[in-house]
Amino acid sequence: MVVLNRIYTKTGDAGETALANGSRVAKHSMRVTAYGTVDETNATLGLARLHATGDLDAALGRIQNDLFDLGADLARPDMERDHEAGYPVLRIAETQVARLENEIDAMIARLDPLRSFILPGGSALAAHLHLCRTVARRAEREAVELATMESVNDAAVKYLNRLSDWFFVAARIANDEGRADVLWLPGANR
After folding, report:
1. Do 154 and 93 touch, CB atoms closer than 8 A?
2. Dmax of the chain from CA atoms?
3. Residues with Cβ < 8 Å from 70, sequence gap 6 or more?
4. Do residues 97 and 160 lie in contact, with contact meaning Cβ atoms separated by under 8 Å?
5. CATH (domain of 151)
C-alpha cells in the first residue's frame, strides 16, 4: 500500500526524479516523459468520465486503474532484474491487452462500418475520448522511442496501441453508436 505523508520532498529540485527501483534520472529522460504522458492520458480520461455513465463509465474506470499499472511498469527500468525486487513487480499483462481487444470487438459489433474519416467531436463525451485517443497515441510513440534505448515491457506498448483504438471506437459509441459522428468532407471549404 502507498502511504503519502508529504507531497513535496525537495529531492527533485535539481532536475532529477526517482524511478520505482530507486535510481535517479533527469526529469527530462525518455522514461519519465513516457510515464508522464501516460499520466496525462489518465487525467484527460478523468475529464471524459465527467460525461460518461453506466457500462462505459465502468470501463473507463478500469482503464484509469490500468493506466496507473502502466505508469508503474514504465517507471521501473531493468525488467531483467525484476526477480531481485523481493516482491512482485507490477507490469502490464497480456490479459489487460486482451480485455481491451475484446471490448473493442464488442463495441464494433454495435457500429455500422465507417465510410469516411470522422472529425473529433460530436457529443461532449466523444470529444473528450478523441482527446484521450490522441494523448494515448503520444504516450505510445514515447514508449516506442524509449524501447529503442532501454528495455520496455512489450505488453505495455501493445496496451497503449490498443488503448487509442479503444478510445476511437468508444467515441463512436458515445456519438449515438456512430449516428452522430462528424464526417470529414474533403476539400469542403475550398
Report:
1. no
2. 63
3. 35, 38, 92, 156, 159, 160
4. no
5. 1.20.1200.10
End-to-end Cα spacing for the chain: 58
Domain holding 123, by residue range, is 25-182
- 120-155 confidence digits (pLDDT tens): 999 999 999 999 999 999 999 999 999 999 999 999
Length of the chain: 190
Range of weakest confidence among 18-22, 68-72, 124-128, 131-135: 18-22
Full-model pTM:
0.91
Question: For residue 33, how many other CB atoms are within 10 A of its CB?
Answer: 18
Q: Is residue 4 part of a domain?
A: no
Residue 32: alpha-carbon gap to chain centroid = 15
Answer positive or negative: Cα dihedral of 169, 171, 174, 177.
Answer: negative
Residue 110 lies in a domain: yes
Q: How far apart are CA 186 and CA 190, in angstroms?
A: 9
- 3-state class (DSSP) for residue 38: helix
SS3 for 70?
helix
Which residue shows C-alpha cell 467531436? Answer: 121
Residue 64 has pLDDT above 80, yes or no: yes
Instruction: Work out how many domains the chain is built from and give that number.
Output: 1
